[in-house]
Amino acid sequence: NDRESIYTGVGLGLVFGSSSAFYVINSIGQSIEGILPEDPVTNLISVGGAFWRIVILASIIQATISVLTMILGVPKGLEYADIIWCETNSPDLGFAKEFADEIKNQYPNKILAYNCSPSFNWLDKFSKKEIENFQKNLNEYGYKLQFVSLAGFHSMASSMYDLANKYKGGNMNAIIELQKFETNLSKEGYTGIKHQQEVGGDYYEKIGEALLGEESDLLSKKDSTENTQF
C-alpha cells in the first residue's frame, strides 16, 4: 500500500544517500592521501581517514538494518501486539482516524491507544465544543485506551512551584491553604493528607508490633499526630 511504498522509498533513499556520501568522503580521503608527502603526519592523517570511513560504513549498515526492520518487522509485529499506540506531533483527529481505519482493516480486534500528550500545546487549538468532543471522537474511531503521559510530572512540578512561590519569605498561609485544599479533597475520597499511611506506615507498624510488642515506645504511629489530628 501507499504507506509501505513510503517506507520503502525512505529506506532506499537512506541506503543510496548514505552510500553516495561514503563514496564521496572516501574519494576525498584517498585524494588527500595521494597529494600529501609520505611522512609521519601523513600516515596519521591516513589512519584517521581510514577510521572515519569505517565509522561511516558502520553507520550505513546500521541505517540499512533499521530501515529494513521498520519495513519488514513492523507489519509482522502488529500481529502479536496487545495494544497499538498512536503517537502524533499534535492533537490531529484526522490522522488518528486514518491510523485507526488502517489498523482496523487488518486487525479489527486490536486495542488502540492514544496519548493525549502534555507535549502538545493544547491552548487555543480547539473551541470549547471541539475539546469537549475530542475524546468522544477518539472513542468512536476505536481508541479504547486514552491517557495523558507525564500528567503526574506536570501536576506535581507546577503545584510544587506554586507552593514554594507562595511560601517564599516564610508565609505559613501557603501551607494552610494547601491543607484546606487537601481537607476538601478528602471528602471526595482523597487519602494523601495522611502521608504516613500513603507510604506504607501501617504495614511497617504491624511488623513492628509483631517484633517489639504493641506497647513498644519505638513504634511510630501509636501517638502519631497523623492519627490524632487528621
Quick summary of this structure?
With 230 residues, the chain is mainly alpha-helical. Helix content is 67%, strand content 6%. Strands 1-2-3 form a three-stranded parallel β-sheet.
Percent helix, as a range, is 55-70%
Number of helices: 9
* Sheet having the most strands: 3 strands, parallel
Rg is: 30 Å
Distance between the termini: 63 Å
Ordered list of secondary-structure elements with their pairings:
Blueprint: H1 2-35, H2 40-78, E1 83-86, H3 93-106, E2 111-115, H4 128-141, E3 143-147, H5 151-167, H6 173-186, H7 195-198, H8 201-212, H9 225-229
Parallel strand pairs: 1-2, 2-3
Helix pairs in contact: 1-2, 3-4, 5-6
Mind explaining what this structure looks like?
It is a single chain. Strand 2, helix 4 (128-141) and strand 3 form a beta-alpha-beta unit. The chain has a 3-stranded parallel β-sheet. The model is unreliable at 40-45 (pLDDT under 50). The chain has helices at residues 2-35, 40-78, 93-106, 128-141, 151-167, 173-186, 195-198, 201-212, 225-229, and strands spanning 83-86, 111-115, 143-147. The radius of gyration is 30 Å and the shape is elongated. Helix content is 67%, strand content 6%.
